[in-house]
Amino acid sequence: MWHDRLKSDGGWKLATFLQLTLNGLAVGCIYGLVALGFVLIYKATELVNFAQGDLLMLGAFVAYMAVVLWGLDYWVGFLIAVVAIAAFGALLDMTILRRVIGQPQFAVVMLTIGLGAMFRTFASVTWGSEIYTLPTPFSGVTKIAGVTVSHQYLSIIASTLVLCGVLYVFFKYSRIGIAMQATSQNQLAAYYVGIPVKLIFSLVWAISAAVATAAGILLAPVTLIDINMGLSVAIKAFAAAVLGGFGSIPGALVGGITIGLIELYAGASLPEGFKDTAPYIVLLVMLAVRPQGLFGTLGRKKV
Amino acid sequence: MRFLFKTAYEQDIRLFPDRVAAMWYGLLGVAVLLLPALLSGYYVGEITWVFIYGICGVSLMVLVGYTGLLSLGHAAFLGIGAYAHAYFLQHGVPWVVSVALATLITTACGIVVGLPALRMTGIYLAIATLAFSVIIQEVFTRWESVTKGFAGMAVEKPVIFGVQFNDNASFYYLCAAILALTLGATRNLLRSPTGRAWIAIRDSEIAAQSMGVNLSVYKTIAFAYSAALMGLAGALFAHKIAYLAPDIFTILLSIQLLLLVIVGGLGSLHGAVFGAIFVALLPPIIAILRDSIPATLADVASATGIGLIRAVGKVIGDFLKKPGVEAGIFGLILVLVILLEPLGMYGRWIKIRLFFSTFPMYKRHTFKRQKSYMRSERLR
Predict the structure, then answer these.
(1) Which residue of A has its CA nearest to B324?
(2) Mean pLDDT throughout B363-380?
(3) By CA distance, what is A183's nearest residue in B?
(4) B80, B157, B212, B272 - which has most CB atoms within 10 Å?
(5) What ipTM was predicted for this assembly?
């Protein structure tokens, strides 16, 4: 691992720090994207989708199938995967998840966990349970002042920025985006003013699944593709969404980047074992101090 | 059809609703006692899992089904109980003391987790317990002086007051007795003010608080009691698997335990036991079906001369042999239960019982689920 190498040549240096920050940002962007998917669905339907990580895994596998097995161009594969998984997300909403809106939250959590297990089984039966690599057009590295800038990580950060920009414009200016905001604020009122609430829910699921797929394809060269790639990412992304305050879109991104940075800093500076636990320790401390997350609001029912 | 006329408050909180019910439970007890004499050692060993998972189920039922707090990290408590018990046994502590210490340690951990949990609800609590379980799993891996890390830790057979529990049958009785004690204790707790406070908190925190239920006290008790039972189950779990490794107590085990209470039926102790039967016996049943379905269908094919049946049997058998299929089947059942029968196996059992007791007059709409319009949990 690169950070072991950096540690061995004697203490902290600015280059090491920058290197860690860059890689942490890239990893954090992935967490942020997945967390964004959680938050979008939660804001619109109050469902917590634990299958988000498995949608990411399915997306990566579809891209792998298109690029490697069918021999298509990377970008065509990217597009096919995003469209396919978005359609799948919308279908999932129409057939299954719409029925559980308004049921106790843990029932929904368990339902999506069950769906996730089914997706993993589907993937292992369809594509096999080995580890696959997805060829990518961003493979080089550039050295800037002692910092190794991997194009892979740059592509992740750039894509996240582009995606967030597109989503921001979409929610702020497009008719459907504004309708989505209205639906998430008050479902009944949105229905009264003629917004097709059911269609909006399906669209939100489609967008969320598409974002997860994009994250999966971006992540594929870093962690490689296997059926469990979604699980660990989803748990950390979930921590990120909670850290940012569930239900806040900027919070999800900030939370994701925070978790990514903590993970890499802790991995490089603290004893072994803290790389994977440090984000959770921070999360627990944060929840104990501020239970509603960084950007969240904690309401209380008025009787 | 039997009518139950309630004339006194005591009737509502009796241990058994009437003598007939008590008799049925007695018969069940006798059946449990006789089973090892009738079955082979392998099946006795598999049924012992039902008892151990039953204790886990009761533990989680108290927390999720009765107090309404979601925990995604209960495997960590199970692991703490198992490791503590194994550690004390290795250092020559007598069995009973070791189990008591393991339970105490787990209870303490439960309180530590429960205290910050008082301020959290719903999804925040789920992620906090999940974070706790990830950290604990890392502790199991790294604290090698106690847990021996990935090398694993062997657990000897229980010896209680000089009595050896070596074979499947004796361990079966030990687990059955502890499950019976657990069920009895929990049932008593549930019909006491504590249990009623838990149920009130589950149904509405605000209403409970308005009626004078001290939320933090009762939530902490629920967490501590649930963790204590998990620790107890962990001690038996350690004996049963005989070899502890950190990768047993993962989030997947926590999810399996939650699946247990949901499939069994939330909000009933019966559900905990039904769910334990389901979770403990499904894997062996899948293993049996894996070989018997192709064989049976092949027999049918050769008897009827239709080759297609043999091919179908082979496809099913091959599908069941693929790695990871079991998790998918669990997932499918979980999805179906939540969509079609939110009260789980116990709910289905109540419906069947009502169908027969009111025979020609059964109305399906008795159990019609209330339509809930977007009950916001953001403000709860």
Answers:
(1) A121
(2) 57
(3) B374
(4) B272
(5) 0.81
Residues of A in contact with B318 (CB under 8 A): none
Average pLDDT on B351-378 reads: 69
Q: Where are the alpha helices (DSSP H) in B211-366?
A: 215-241, 251-264, 269-304, 307-321, 325-340, 344-357
What single DSSP character describes residue B17? S
Scanning B146-205 for CB atoms below 8 A from A yields none
pTM, two decimal places: 0.85
- Residue A141 carries which side chain, given as an amino acid letter? V
| Nearest residue, CB atoms, A121 vs list B124, B141, B328 | B328
Residue A216's Cβ-count burial label (10 Å; 0-12, 13-18, 19+) is buried
Q: How far apart are CA A121 and CA B323, in angstroms?
A: 8
CA distance A232 to chain B (A): 10
| Residue B320 pLDDT greater than 80, yes or no | no
Q: Is the pLDDT of residue B292 over 60?
A: yes
3-state secondary structure of B7: coil
Chain B positions touching A121 (Cβ under 8 A) are 324-325, 327-329, 331
Ranges of chain A with pLDDT below 70: 1-12, 102, 296-303
Taking the Cβ of residue A287 and every Cβ of chain B, the question of whether any pair is shorter than 8 Å is answered with: yes
Q: Please tell me if residue A237 touches chain B, with a CB cutoff of 8 Å.
A: no
Task: Look up residue A98 and give its amino acid.
Answer: R
Between the CA atoms of B156, B158, B164 and B170, what dihedral angle is there, to the nearest 10 degrees? -110
pLDDT, tens only, A55-71: 999 999 998 888 888 88
What's the pLDDT tens digit per position in B202-250?
Answer: 888 888 889 999 888 899 999 999 999 999 999 999 988 888 888 888 8
Cβ atoms within 10 Å, residue B82: 30
Provide the chain A residues 88-127 that lie in CB contact (below 8 A) with chain B: 96, 99-107, 109-111, 113-118, 120-122, 124-125
Residue range B346-362: mean pLDDT, rounded: 84
Per residue in B170-205, pLDDT (tens digit) is 888 899 999 999 999 999 999 899 999 999 888 888
Residue B103 confidence (pLDDT): 93
Q: Cβ of A121 and B374 within 8 Å?
A: no
pLDDT of residue A67: 86
* Cα–Cα distance for residue pair A22/A274, rounded to 1 Å: 19
Nearest Cα to B313, choosing from B283, B293, B289? B293
Q: What pLDDT, on the 0 to 100 scale, is given for residue B374?
A: 45
- Please give the pLDDT value at position B39: 82
Give the best residue of B316, B333, B378 to mutate against chain A (max A CB count within 10 A): B378
Give, as one character, the DSSP assignment of residue B263: H
B223: tokens are: 């967490």
Alpha-carbon gap, residue B13 to A64, rounded angstroms: 60
Are B322 and A124 inside 8 Å of each other by CB? yes
Q: Which two tokens stand for residue A33?
A: 């994207």
Classify each residue of A148-170 as buried b or exposed e, where b means 16 or more C-beta atoms within 10 Å of its C-beta.
ebbebbbbbbebbeebbeebeee
**CA separation for the pair B227, B104 (Å, rounded):** 9
- Region B304-315 average pLDDT: 76
